[in-house]
Amino acid sequence: MEDKISRNEFLKSLGFKGASLLAIYCGASTLTSCINEAGDPSGNVGLDFTLDLTDPANSKLNSVGNYLIVNKVVIARVSADQFAAVTQICSHENKSKVIYQGTGFYCTEHGAKYTIEGVGLNSEGKKGIKAYNTQLTGTTLRIFA
Ligand code: FES
């Protein structure tokens, strides 16, 4: 005879419940999704992707001062050889309204301002904003946490 119990029932029988049960399920899923479930407001912990700058869809990034929003990340061409990237989600009231404006990042909702490194420059932006690393290799731009 075969006794079948669910994974949940098995874990409960060992005394796991609530948060510890969630932690075990996280361990079985991908690290990224687990961390995101832990409450990162940007939802972008573990973020890592590349953009092909020869692709017309990414052509804005070939001109200094322009920006592109991909995967809720605002990516800006700051200078001939420098990029900057921050989450699109403003730390003031979590609106997805951050853009790049000339010398830094700006939220169009209430005016929060951030440096290209994500440091807050006014009262709305005082919490700063999550910034990501950028790395250009040839014509491939990598954006990563
Ligand atoms: S939500 Fe961005 S400034 Fe208020």
Automatic annotation (TrEMBL):
SUPFAM superfamilies: ISP domain (SSF50022). Keywords: 2Fe-2S, Iron, Iron-sulfur, Metal-binding. The keyword Metal-binding applies. InterPro entries: Rieske_2Fe-2S, Rieske_2Fe-2S_sf. PROSITE patterns: PROKAR_LIPOPROTEIN, RIESKE. Signal peptide: none annotated. Residues 72-143 form the Rieske domain. It comes from the Bacteria. The keyword Cell cycle does not apply. This is Rieske 2Fe-2S domain-containing protein.
